[in-house]
Fold these 4 entries.
Entry 1:
Amino acid sequence: MRLLHTMLRVVDLDRSIAFYTEVLGMRLLRRNDYPEGKFTLAFVGYQDESEGAVLELTHNWGVESYELGTAYGHIALAVPDAYAACAAIKARGGKVVREAGPMKHGTTVIAFVEDPDGYKVELIQAKS
């Protein structure tokens, strides 16, 4: 077995695709409309689905908002330099909600950004 994808429900699919591809540097791997079900699925990631886990962005037509809930946490991405990643994300219009720095009670450098729907994305600096 292996992890295939994580699904996020999004309000504005084009805005979300732009965030994950233009701000976080992922690629749009595939996008399909399902008119009978009134939804669209888009898959984004850093590598092909056959090589690793990706994100499934689900847009249910006509839905204006979602409650994120309190059980969901965040997506985590490995980055070579969290400080540089935050600067690049801000330069591309992304929202940094926790600047890069050591995690509380530890030494790992982390940061958090937020996607257009309010989902948190943790950046974890690779150990040198």
Entry 2:
Amino acid sequence: MHEHAAGERLEVAAAVLALLADRTRLALLVRLAQGEADVTTLTEASGAARPSVSQHLAKLRLAGLVATRKEGRRIVYSLRHGHLRRLVGEALNVADHQIGALPPHD
């Protein structure tokens, strides 16, 4: 991989991590990691106000991290790929280690 591609890769990875670095968006992604959900379900799961949840979902969708499909009049959201699900899970695992002073492991 040449330097330009490596730089672009880091740029995009940093942008993804920046999107994850918001408590509400992270809560939405944690819920979506369990399976697809609509705005009502996601609002309940995140504990944020519905307009805020809709805005955060729009950002995640624009960034290509979540996908949508229509089910009647409902819009159902899902994670775009397993890498994101694992990334969110690992972020929570790191938090568990920080909070619980768990022994380091690989």
Entry 3:
Amino acid sequence: MSRLIRIGQWLNASGFADYEHAFVFVGDGQLVEAQPGGAELRPLSVYDGRPALWSTGRYALTDAQRAAVVAAARGYIGVPYSAADYFALAAHRLRLPVGPLIKGYVASSRHMICSQLVDQCYLDAGVHLFSDGRWPGYVTPADLAKLLLA
């Protein structure tokens, strides 16, 4: 699956980035992440020993915003994964004449790739991670990594 994500990110001008996944830490050693079988609540320990970037300290969030991000993440448990979102993102980037059709598809929170789930949780809490005018849901794991590495 990670190879497909790398290809999807390349199609979206994110290059072959080393960041292929994103999740939301929800406390008590748990995270919520989009998986091929749908968004799941999982132990953070599944990533022990694997490199990760953290947003802690990158964004000044209030306690209420942090709680809202966590509540949003928990609310998305069970939402189906959609690899088709990568192809919709690529179609947008390549300026294929399907804009209005794919904009609504990708913006839908009825299906999400991992980075869309993270971005949507922040949006639900009133926090906009991107200020570049991108359409809702148009975010890859590499896009999130670029924010953290900037």
Entry 4:
Amino acid sequence: MDFLSSTPHFHIFTWVVGIIIFLVSAVMANGTKGKKITHMIARLFYILILISGVALFIKGMDYGRGAEYGIKFLLGLLTIGMMEMVLVRSEKGKKVTTFWILFFVFLFATMFLGFRLPMGFEFF
């Protein structure tokens, strides 16, 4: 089994684990060693999400839907950006309400588009 054939499953695994680790890190107390460790693990998963997302984008060209996969890739980048902004700004004691809202908006849009595309799942 080559990497690209299992990419959708790996990608879903990485973003599910990444979001869980992000949420765990977000609720931890500021300045603790555990928060710093989970934040670094979340960053590792951001990289894995991006690598598998690029692989999906490349594979999406085979379906002739490169633009839609490109939009999904950009939405995914924005989602990861909001995750990082929430963690960094909360560590500095700044307001993060706007970034939480943007995180959920971008996450919903990314998931909606990702599941609708040919390599996604059909729920209905």
